[in-house]
Amino acid sequence: MTPTLVRHHTQAEPSASVDTGSRARDWAEIQERMLAPLYEAVYTRLEIGPATRMLSLGCGSGLALLIAAGRGAHVTGVDPDLDRLSLARIRLLPGPEEESGPGSAEPQLLESVPVPAPGHEPYNLITAFTPIGCSPDDGEELVRTLGAAVPSAGRRSTVVLTGWGPPERCATDAVLQVATRLAEGPPRAAGGLGARRDDLENVAFRAGLNPDGSGRVACPFGYADVDSAVRGLLSTRLFDAAVRATDRSQVEKEVAEALHPHLRQDGTVWMPNVFRYLVCTT
């Protein structure tokens, strides 16, 4: 599956206040699919299927869950964003007149990591598809989340961590630097916002995981026009601090300017990126 150019006609909000429901829809309709090649590559490598019991951390509006469920996996998604989670429920849960397939388990969609209950069947796969490398503390946050999630998994279960690739291979890096500059924060690292070479391994070791292989996946960000690109990027929540420090219209203006080098003659926006994933065991 490759990214699709999506045109979104709704006008951007001029104020600093954000309609979180609209932003969640922008995420689901524009941005979430950009990481679909990453999901597919990981699922193919791990041979995801009916024997898989997956816990997805930061499941968003459920695209990664939907792809895994389509392969027969039993899926549980966790996301603190209630608007994204609501869209995931629409995507994944059967309506009142629908039934799940024979022998299938209904997806579970939760606001926080579930506490293992007596008789709980352990997960054998935990995924963290929100890439680290965009803020100084996103690795710390992932370590804390894994600390809550790993006890729900069985021994020798698989955990997948993801991060941005090297800045020189991520065209979106220059656009993301707008967020740091406007928020008046320190640069992520010399040379850009991408994850440093050993960031994923450091998270794994701190979370008590054993690295067992890695890979890189090309995930180009493609948009129908600049407006769609701005809305998609702001839906990632990576620009929230910049919006608070300035205002939404200023952030939108500067993001649009940063996108100009990636604007093609037909009006579409195209930014090649590479993401890295690390396969670990508990």
Number of strands: 9
Can you give the mean pLDDT? 88
Shape: globular
The structure class reads alpha/beta
The proportion of residues in beta strands is 15-25%
**Helical segment count:** 10
Distance between the termini: 29 Å
Largest sheet: 7 strands, mixed
Radius of gyration: 19 Å
Neighbour order of strands in the largest sheet: 3-2-1-4-5-9-6
What order do the SSEs take from the amino end to the carboxyl end, as H and E? HHEHEHEEHEHHEEHHHEE
The amount of helix comes to 25-40%
Low-confidence stretches: 1-16
What does this structure look like?
The protein has 282 residues and is of the alpha/beta class. The protein has helices at 20-31, 36-46, 63-70, 82-92, 138-149, 173-182, 199-206, 226-234, 240-245, 248-259; strands at residues 53-57, 74-78, 108-110, 123-132, 153-164, 210-218, 221-223, 269-271, 274-281. It has a seven-stranded mixed sheet, with helices on both faces. It has a two-stranded antiparallel ribbon with strand order 7-8. Helix 5 links the parallel strand 4 and strand 5 (153-164). Helix 6 packs antiparallel against helix 10. It starts with 19 loop residues before the first helix and ends with a strand.
